[in-house]
Write a structure and sequence with these properties.
Length: about 150
């Protein structure tokens, strides 16, 4: 009975809360962990808190919208907060592919992308990326593009 009441409350809340549009849209060539909202390289409770801060309190936008789209519906919305929280607590299935354990590309076409990810990008030799291989954190450098031959 208690779970049903919680479900009813969550469902009612989701219907009334506005959806905030993703702030960043970049290339789809970043590997990411689904649910790694804060680009730390792992999916944990801090990702849920980061998404809550963004959705409800005007906090910083996720650096990888694909990672924040926990249900892979092509939008970063309040459903993603509950999907992450429930999967973290064991009440829901883990986030869809690429999942929360192995880095990968988004298998579904959508307008979302990444400006930064906790995983190394698939095409890091392009020259417009800077990062630290030890931490797996990569940032796109605007306006800088070099050839793969070093030029």
């Amino acid at each position: 009975m208690r779970r049903m009441s919680l479900f009813a409350l969550v469902s009612a809340t989701v219907l009334w809360l506005p959806t905030r549009a993703p702030a960043l849209v970049y290339d789809d060539d970043f590997e990411f962990l689904r649910g790694d909202v804060n680009s730390s390289g792992e999916v944990d409770l801090s990702d849920v808190l980061s998404l809550v801060a963004f959705q409800f309190y005007g906090g910083a936008a996720p650096e990888c919208d694909d990672a924040a789209d926990a249900d892979d519906n092509g939008r970063v919305d309040t459903i993603d907060v509950f999907q992450l929280l429930y999967s973290h607590m064991g009440y829901a299935a883990p986030p869809p592919s690429p999942g929360r354990d192995l880095c990968g590309l988004d298998p579904t076409p959508d307008p979302l992308g990444c400006a930064r990810s906790g995983c190394a990008p698939l095409f890091s030799s392009r020259g417009d990326l800077e990062g630290d291989v030890r931490t797996g954190s990569w940032d796109r450098v605007p306006g800088r593009m070099t050839s793969s031959t070093g030029g």
